[in-house]
């Protein structure tokens, strides 16, 4: 009863008024955790469906623990990306750096809906997924700064980070989609009821190899969820200028599809749960479009305002920020207090600072290792350097 | 045993030996293979292990690479390597480079195989040799068998290798029978990748070739032998990593070098051999500049007289040897 009252309250209390009332409610100095609800039910937007009779439900239950974990994870990614921005401007990060801030609900929502034994592959905007799949902020930042403590020992950089059941981090637009279907083929082959989530952007959605992959995945009923993170722009080209049809969830044609609010972590989670169940049941692939937004430009060399207005960016920030949405939900439904979330913010900032400290002080990989890892499981051999007298040893 | 049957045996044995090995490509299953290399395998192993793909090279090559990353051991057939150009991004950027980019945490144990280079009357778009293109890239292994033993041993070694291997076969060799030793009949017969073989010992000149031209070199050696010139014929077997040491040791002995290949001259396998010989100890033993015999520097024509003169013939090799020896 109390839960439903609170849920009803949350629908009524929207916007700044809620913050004021929330602040008033927590004027009591110390708050017992027993005062919080253990969970709450939320209404979520229904998904647009393609070739599906039923989609994910329109309510989602979130426990306090889940909410705190989602919040902390999204905030960590947010601050990690902002720190990367800083480090890039200081020229400590070089080359390509494609930031994910704004899109946090996608990677965190996906991870919340799948198992660690499932598989994920994405393109180059990969730092968020690298984190949710289990790599520490330390190792991510150190990889960005090209140090030996990086998750790829400084060999890969921003676009080539990997971990167990996470296949990167791929630089060639669209190439990761067939790879993901191949991982799904292995899942089916091994018969352990695992699935693969293969992500791509609205720009990549026009790649021919994706359509080849749709065909084979459907033909062979591969347990693959194709997820299009539609952030409205492929580099500087808006979706209207790139695609004859911007209904990316329908592009799989004979493959059923869902269009999901990618700024709402619960929407994402419920949709991916639905899709994962579908795939695990042996029905074959699904296409999912997550409508999301990136605050940064395409990469650090793109200010991101020549093809979209500052007003648009600001509007998304104020009305649809995924972290703010989650925070409001939690506070308005008595799942957490503002102070508690602030404490998490402080802890996250500290973690990021420490990780950045490591990433800027850890040494670069030793030059002697330049030739390492050309092959796997191979006896050592010699690799030629810039001339015939410079030789590097290659060890697997 | 023909090269075709040797390859078939290798596939059969490796499919049986390791459950993670599977074959995919156009027409490999129910058609028994476009060139019948996979004859009988679908019947024996079924849909899970032998998979017919639609005509989607980029897609199925990517799927094969992804499957390899996730722990399977795919053999991905390109009906000819000409079609691999559609998928070359997956071969190079997804397969070859991943072990390095991931600092050794992701292995890609895949074999890309199929016929390469000239055939008979198939014209320009179906006759290109890709040895130089694939041989260029670190992270790949590239093998090019000539005999049935080569084919069987190298295919088995490639499948057992934990790295991406490109195996360049020759359609014109598929039907050619070769002697197979007792040893080669064994189920564990593998030929080490990265080791060349001296097919015919000689003293006056070193002939280095890969794939079908090895046979032409042996024929040329027979012709030259009658004139008192003894050629040492080296079958490279592997393009990358190239066994230059075997070539060097031979040049130190014979003082003369002729390279023979089916591909185009510019930036070819022969060019690489010459450059490496120059850089190494064998240079001081050369009594004359190295000579290259290659495919003609033209897209492959159709008419027989034109095609015949666009690939290295025995007479071209004999002529080159005589030039090198100044006789």
UniProtKB/TrEMBL annotation, chain A:
One of its GO terms (cellular component) is mitochondrial matrix. GO terms for molecular function: metal ion binding; pyruvate dehydrogenase (acetyl-transferring) activity. It catalyses: N(6)-[(R)-lipoyl]-L-lysyl-[protein] + pyruvate + H(+) = N(6)-[(R)-S(8)-acetyldihydrolipoyl]-L-lysyl-[protein] + CO2. One of its GO terms (biological process) is pyruvate decarboxylation to acetyl-CoA. It is an enzyme of class 1 (oxidoreductase). Its EC number is 1.2.4.1. Residues 1-19 form the signal peptide. Keywords: Carbohydrate metabolism, Glucose metabolism, Magnesium, Metal-binding, Mitochondrion, Oxidoreductase, Phosphoprotein, Pyruvate, Signal, Thiamine pyrophosphate, Transit peptide. The keyword Nucleotidyltransferase does not apply. The keyword Transit peptide applies. It is found in: Mitochondrion matrix. This is Pyruvate dehydrogenase E1 component subunit alpha. It comes from Catharus ustulatus.
From TrEMBL, chain B:
Its cofactor is thiamine diphosphate. It comes from the Eukaryota. The keyword Ubl conjugation does not apply. It is found in: Mitochondrion. Keywords: Carbohydrate metabolism, Glucose metabolism, Metal-binding, Mitochondrion, Oxidoreductase, Potassium, Pyruvate, Thiamine pyrophosphate, Transit peptide. Gene3D superfamilies: 3.40.50.920, 3.40.50.970. It is an enzyme of class 1 (oxidoreductase). It catalyses: N(6)-[(R)-lipoyl]-L-lysyl-[protein] + pyruvate + H(+) = N(6)-[(R)-S(8)-acetyldihydrolipoyl]-L-lysyl-[protein] + CO2. Residues 1-176 form the Transketolase-like pyrimidine-binding domain. GO terms for cellular component: mitochondrion; pyruvate dehydrogenase complex. GO terms for biological process: glucose metabolic process; pyruvate decarboxylation to acetyl-CoA. The keyword Membrane does not apply. Pfam families: Transket_pyr (PF02779), Transketolase_C (PF02780). Its EC number is 1.2.4.1. One of its GO terms (molecular function) is metal ion binding. The pyruvate dehydrogenase complex catalyzes the overall conversion of pyruvate to acetyl-CoA and CO(2), and thereby links the glycolytic pathway to the tricarboxylic cycle. PANTHER family: DEHYDROGENASE RELATED, PYRUVATE DEHYDROGENASE E1 COMPONENT SUBUNIT BETA, MITOCHONDRIAL. NCBIfam families: PRK09212.1 (NF006667), PRK11892.1 (NF008854). This is Pyruvate dehydrogenase E1 component subunit beta. The lineage of its organism: Eukaryota, Metazoa, Chordata, Craniata, Vertebrata.
């Amino acid at each position: 009863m109390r839960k439903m009252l609170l849920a009803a309250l949350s629908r009524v209390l929207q916007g700044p008024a809620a913050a004021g009332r929330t602040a008033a409610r927590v004027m009591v100095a110390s708050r017992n955790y027993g005062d919080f609800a253990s969970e709450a039910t939320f209404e979520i937007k229904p998904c647009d469906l393609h070739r599906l009779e039923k989609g994910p439900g329109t309510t989602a239950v979130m426990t306090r623990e889940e909410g705190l974990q989602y919040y902390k994870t999204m905030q960590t990614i947010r601050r990690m990306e902002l720190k990367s921005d800083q480090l890039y401007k200081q020229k400590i990060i070089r080359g390509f750096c494609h930031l994910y801030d704004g899109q946090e609900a996608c990677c965190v929502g996906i991870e919340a809906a799948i198992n660690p034994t499932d598989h994920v592959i994405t393109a180059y905007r990969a730092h968020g997924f690298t984190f949710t799949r289990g790599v520490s902020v330390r190792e991510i930042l150190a990889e960005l700064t090209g140090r030996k403590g990086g998750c790829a020992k400084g060999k890969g950089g921003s676009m080539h980070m990997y971990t167990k059941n996470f296949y990167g981090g791929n630089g060639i637009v669209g190439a990761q989609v067939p790879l993901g279907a191949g991982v799904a083929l292995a899942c089916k082959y091994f018969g352990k009821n695992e699935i693969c989530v293969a992500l791509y952007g609205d720009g990549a959605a026009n790649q021919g190899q994706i359509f080849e992959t749709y065909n084979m995945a459907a033909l062979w009923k591969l347990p693959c969820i194709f997820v299009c993170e539609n952030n409205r722009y492929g580099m500087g080209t808006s979706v209207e200028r790139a695609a004859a049809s911007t209904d990316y969830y329908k592009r799989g044609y004979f493959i059923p599809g869902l269009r999901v609010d990618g700024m709402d972590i619960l929407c994402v989670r419920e949709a991916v749960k639905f899709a994962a169940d579908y795939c695990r049941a042996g029905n074959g692939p699904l296409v999912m479009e997550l409508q999301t937004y990136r605050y940064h430009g395409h990469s650090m060399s793109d200010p991101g305002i020549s093809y979209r207005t500052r007003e648009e960016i600001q509007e998304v920030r104020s009305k649809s920020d995924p972290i703010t949405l989650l925070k409001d939900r939690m506070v308005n439904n008595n799942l957490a207090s503002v102070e508690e979330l602030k404490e998490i913010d402080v802890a996250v900032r500290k973690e990021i600072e420490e990780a950045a400290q490591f990433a800027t002080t850890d040494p670069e990989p030793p030059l002697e290792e330049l030739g390492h890892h050309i092959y796997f499981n191979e006896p050592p051999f010699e690799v030629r350097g810039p001339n015939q007298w410079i030789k590097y040893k290659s060890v697997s | 045993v023909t090269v075709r049957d040797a390859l078939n045996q290798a596939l059969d044995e490796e499919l049986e030996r390791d459950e993670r090995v599977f074959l995919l490509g156009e027409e490999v299953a129910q058609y028994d293979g476009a060139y019948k290399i996979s004859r009988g395998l679908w019947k024996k192993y079924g849909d899970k292990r032998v998979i017919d793909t639609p005509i989607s090279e980029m897609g199925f090559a990517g799927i094969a690479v992804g499957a390899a990353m996730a722990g399977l051991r795919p053999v991905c057939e390109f009906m000819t390597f000409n079609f691999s150009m559609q998928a070359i991004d997956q071969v190079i950027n997804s397969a070859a480079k991943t072990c390095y980019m991931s600092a050794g945490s992701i292995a890609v144990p895949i074999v890309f195989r199929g016929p390469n280079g000239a055939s008979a009357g198939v014209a320009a778009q179906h006759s290109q040799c890709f040895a130089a293109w694939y041989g260029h890239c670190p992270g790949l292994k590239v093998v090019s068998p000539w005999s049935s033993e080569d084919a069987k041993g190298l295919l088995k070694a490639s499948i057992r290798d934990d790295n991406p291997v490109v195996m360049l076969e020759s359609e014109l060799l598929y039907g050619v029978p070769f002697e197979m030793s007792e040893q080669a009949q064994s189920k564990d017969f593998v030929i080490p990748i990265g080791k060349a073989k001296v097919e015919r010992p000689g003293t006056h000149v070193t002939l280095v070739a890969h794939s079908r031209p090895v046979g032409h070199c042996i024929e040329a050696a027979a012709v030259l032998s009658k004139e008192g010139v003894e050629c040492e014929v080296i079958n490279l077997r592997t393009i990358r990593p190239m066994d230059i040491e075997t070539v060097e040791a031979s040049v130190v002995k014979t003082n003369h070098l002729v390279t023979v290949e089916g591909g185009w001259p510019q930036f070819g396998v022969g060019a690489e051999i010459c450059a490496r010989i120059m850089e190494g100890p064998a240079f001081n033993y050369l009594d004359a500049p190295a000579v290259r015999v290659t495919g003609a520097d033209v897209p492959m024509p159709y008419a027989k007289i034109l095609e015949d003169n666009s690939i290295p013939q025995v007479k071209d090799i004999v002529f080159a040897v005589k030039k090198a020896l100044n006789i």
